[in-house]
Design goal:
Among the domains are: about 110-225 and about 285-395, SGNH hydrolase (Rossmann fold, 3-Layer(aba) Sandwich); about 415-545, Galactose-binding domain-like (Jelly Rolls), CATH 2.60.120. The chain is globular and about 100 Å long. The chain is built from 14 helices and 20 strands. Helices cover about 35% and strands about 20% of the residues. The longest helix has about 40 residues, at about 1-40. With about 550 residues, the chain is α+β, with helices and mostly antiparallel strands.
């Protein structure tokens, strides 16, 4: 009896222990769920998301809306844009798909950013179709893109194109932008060789220095390396369990991100107090920056091609020169030191005359207010950058410019296949827009409000085209104001192409809008882009579906 009672007591104790343990685990689990919900919906914290896809040649692609890593394969420059699709542990391509006509397809995404006026397809079509066209290519980071401009038509490189055309009387002079946010000189050098040089540029302009000399030295990368390199090393080679936890928990992600931020804060503090470390790290960054720029300038010199490097302005330097002390990630004192160190290195540099110092463009008056953040400028500042570049650049574009290369790239490009011409009677007015038809053309009118929709045209796609990369061609002429065209997936309402704006100065114009993904039904949207209070009018002559 005693033994049996003892066993029963132990069983009861074990049951109570298990019950207590399960209860405790349940409380812990519910508390964790509750804490996670509070973190996400009360404190607006987020699990780990990515805003730039991995780009195996350039390290990173363009900035995109925050998304899980697996969702970025369709981003510009991602595997989806190159015809790769996921399958098991690898991505694959259709062996029966047409091969790329050129290796520049690996860099074509550089022309697809939101502030670029011309896509890679536009660039090739213009240069191969007009032997007399002149092209100035722009490379750099986000400031070179024109970031903070309210519209691509307000970006400094578009204004520069307009100014050069007027000054030189050459309507077929184009400024093509292949800059990419966050890039440093090493990546820009790659872009020069992979995206620009094969297209036989008339001239090249680099607009840079901030990412190389200020942003890069405060990151956990070697001087001269792309600033996102260490991040992608962590993503590929790091502890998978930590990334899984960060991707599924806002609390865990916040803790881990704070550790990364703390490391950067510590490095900035060391650079502020340790003169030797500051001079060594910034000095190395300057040397490597000048190495990359000197290499491309030497190529330009050998080909007798005019090329420049514009040193961009920044708010801290502008503030210091006008009696202020607005800091950047580094103090105003350090920012001035960096610029002085760069100018000292340039003083005896072989290509000193090829460097255009624009750091003082916004000096004086209310120039500091032009900045929207430490390095980007508002619509009021974009024209000042364009004006500062016209004077040194225009004279070199008058002389006969080099053309052609050993390889006739245009001969290798395959023209798109016409799949269907969309009847123009499918164009219907939107909102306060107006549509009228006569003699096989459609006239549009958009009201003066920025982003006001004028009209749309619905396109039903043949299921037989579902696996083919498509583009929509639009021919139109803007008579007044501006009109932008963009392709939208009608089932989701999401834009699946870059938008392309036109103005009255473009005359008879055409855009080929590459379609991302494989939607079954499309809409071409016609809308106003500028906030200038001008009602816009345009004539649409053609909408067609192409196979790329």
């Amino acid at each position: 009896m005693g033994l049996g009672g003892s066993e029963g007591g132990r069983a009861t104790l074990w049951a109570r222990t298990c019950q207590s343990l399960v209860g405790t685990l349940l409380v812990v689990a519910l508390s964790a769920v509750a804490a996670e919900l509070v973190a996400r919906y009360i404190f607006d914290l987020s699990p780990l998301v990515y805003t730039r896809p991995l780009q195996p040649v350039f390290v990173t692609g363009d900035q995109v809306p925050p998304a899980r890593l697996a969702a970025l394969h369709d981003a510009p420059g991602g595997p989806g844009s190159l015809g790769y699709w996921p399958g098991g542990l690898a991505f694959h391509v259709d062996p029966a798909a047409p091969p790329p006509a050129s290796t520049t397809t690996l860099s074509d995404f550089l022309f697809e950013h939101p502030l670029s006026r011309y896509s890679a397809r536009d660039v090739d079509r213009i240069l191969c179709g007009d032997p007399d066209a002149s092209a100035l290519f722009v490379l750099g980071g986000s400031a070179a893109q024109g970031f903070s401009a309210s519209s691509r038509l307000r970006a400094w490189h578009v204004l520069l194109e307009d100014a050069l055309r007027r000054k030189l009387g050459k309507p077929n002079l184009y400024v093509f932008n292949a800059a990419m946010g966050g890039y440093v000189a090493f990546q820009e050098k790659l872009a020069f060789h992979l995206a620009v040089a094969p297209r036989a540029p008339a001239a090249v302009l680099f607009y840079n220095s901030y990412n190389d000399l200020i942003l890069q030295p405060i990151t956990d990368t070697r001087p001269g390396d792309p600033v996102w390199l260490a991040t992608w090393y962590g993503t590929v080679y790091g502890d998978r369990s930590l990334f899984w936890l960060a991707e599924h928990s806002a609390i865990a992600n916040t803790v881990l991100q704070n550790i990364v931020a703390g490391s950067m804060i510590d490095l900035v503090a060391r650079l502020e107090r340790d003169d030797a470390l500051f001079e060594r790290r910034v000095g190395a960054a300057i040397d490597l920056y000048l190495e990359s720029m000197s290499e491309v300038l030497a190529v330009c010199e050998a080909e007798r091609r005019p090329c420049w490097v514009a040193l961009q302005p920044n708010r801290a330097l502008t503030s210091a020169r006008t009696g202020g002390a607005t800091p950047d990630v580094l103090s105003a004192r350090r920012m001035v030191q960096i610029h002085d160190m760069l100018l000292k290195r340039l003083a005896g540099h072989r290509y000193r005359e090829r460097f255009l110092d624009l750091s003082g463009v916004f000096d004086g008056g209310e120039g500091e207010r032009t900045f929207t953040d430490p390095v980007h400028v508002s619509d009021s500042g974009q024209p000042l950058i364009a004006e500062a570049l016209v004077v040194p650049i225009a004279p070199s574009l008058v002389a006969p410019l080099p053309r052609g290369r050993a390889v006739d790239r245009c001969a290798t490009l395959t023209p798109p296949q016409l799949l269907a011409v969309v009847p123009l009677d499918r164009i219907a007015a939107d909102g306060d827009g107006r549509v009228s038809r006569s003699e096989g053309m459609v006239a549009l009118r958009a009201d003066p409000r920025q982003w006001a929709f004028a009209a749309h045209a619905t396109i039903e796609l043949d299921p037989a085209w579902s696996a083919r990369p498509l583009a929509v061609r639009v021919r139109l002429a803007v008579a007044k104001g501006d009109v932008a065209v963009v392709v939208v997936d009608q089932s989701t309402g999401k834009e699946v192409s870059p938008d392309r704006p036109f103005t009255a100065g473009d005359g008879e114009a055409m855009a080929e809008l590459a379609v991302r993904g494989h939607p079954s039904r499309l809409s071409v949207i016609f809308k106003k882009q500028l906030a200038d209070g001008v009602a816009s009018e345009a004539i649409v002559r053609e909408i067609a579906v192409l196979a790329r």
